[in-house]
Amino acid sequence: MARKLGEQLVSEGVLKPDMLARALERQKATGQKLGECLVRLGLDETPVLRVLAQEFKTRFVSTAKLSQAKIEPSLLEKIPVRLAEGFDFVPLRMDEAGVLYVAIAEPQRQRAIEEIARTAGVKQVLPFVAVRRSIRAAIRKHYYADAQAFEHMPDDESCPHCGAPVSKDDFQCERCELLLVRSPDELQKRDNVSLVRALIAPPDKKVTTERPVHPLMDKTRASGYAHDPERSKLVPIITGGLLSIVEKPLHPFEAYVLSFVDGRTPVSDIAKVTSLADVELHAIFESLCEREITQLTTPPEKPARAPRRAPEVKNAKPAAKAVSTSAPAEAPASAQAPASAKSAPPQPPVATPAPAPVTDNAADGVIQRAVQLERSGKIEEAIAMLDQGISKLPQPAPLYNRLGMILLNQRKDYARASALFQKAADLDPDNSAYMMNLYTVLSLTADATNPGKKVKRR
């Protein structure tokens, strides 16, 4: 549709080839629709909207008309602002037959139209195509009583919820954690990254899967350490609770290291897995220990092996019966040694003793148990453990929203992500980002589960 739109406008004489080339470059760089790029480059929006309306077999609403539109307050009360922001549309009017007329940036998103109708409780939705910036200005004007909304149009390259800068490849807004994808095709296949790492790390625009950048050496104070073989035998454990870890400013690399701390693996082995030198790893653990996030413990002693039982010899003659005496039997001479020859028992390395195993009722052990389950390949159990731990927090909504993002991005788990977004929205109805995420994932679910009804994106 992009080239068809551009070629048609060129053939009609309203667009020059050099501007089309610039618009295509802008589209490639920003991920915006070609029509939006053309308007931003200065082309009159009317011919663009006219061609789009013909393609979608509908009508269009210009920015001038949308700025003068009068929308009944009763209709605004019927259509939640979170729904309007989530799908980039604004209601215009509703007729007596129950037909809702809306101005929307992407009228070809049939699943979004169906979700609007279901949520609004109307029989039919008739979409009119409009410029996205104009729609967002109309939302600001009518829902937020911003009289200057059309004089100060919102930027297309910003988050529709909080206004933070975003780019075309961003999965979520780094500031408000709004879901930015609009199609299942934008959910790329990702590596099996630790759920714990994603949950406790600061929100990332792209939810990267690769190893994060190592923190600066002056921040880890690695230069103050000398190699100590005994320290490398110690086993780190996670002692901080879920809430305390999330609230503390973790570096992404610290979250990466913590995703390998299962309470059983010594520092030396973690160093091999993370490709870090022992001195670097000890510097990170020293910082984590100071903040009461981790603790270094002595490894549990392995139980002594029982002596092997001599194999039975078939047809062997029974041994002669020992003569019982009242005196205790003397030890063999080889086993006896003078008291002066006995050496003192070896001293274990100085460290905190390993704590007792965490019980299922202890909320502070959620992170440690989740890491253990992940390291054992029990991902579903790890998800259930994190969900259970989040439910015990005093303000669980932000982490429900974040866990929903992780499951959607890493596992394309639409059902569980929807349930988590719903929990977040129910617990904190004043945060519109949670409800917008819910509406978006419902539309993504419909697109993903009804591929035969999908309309090709333009």
From TrEMBL:
Residues 295-361 are annotated as: Disordered. Residues 345-356 have a biased composition (Pro residues). This is Type II secretion system protein GspE N-terminal domain-containing protein. Residues 64-147 form the Type II secretion system protein GspE N-terminal domain. SMART domains: TPR. It comes from Hyalangium minutum. Residues 322-344 have a biased composition (Low complexity). InterPro entries: T2SS_E_N_sf, T2SS_GspE_N, TPR-like_helical_dom_sf, TPR_rpt.
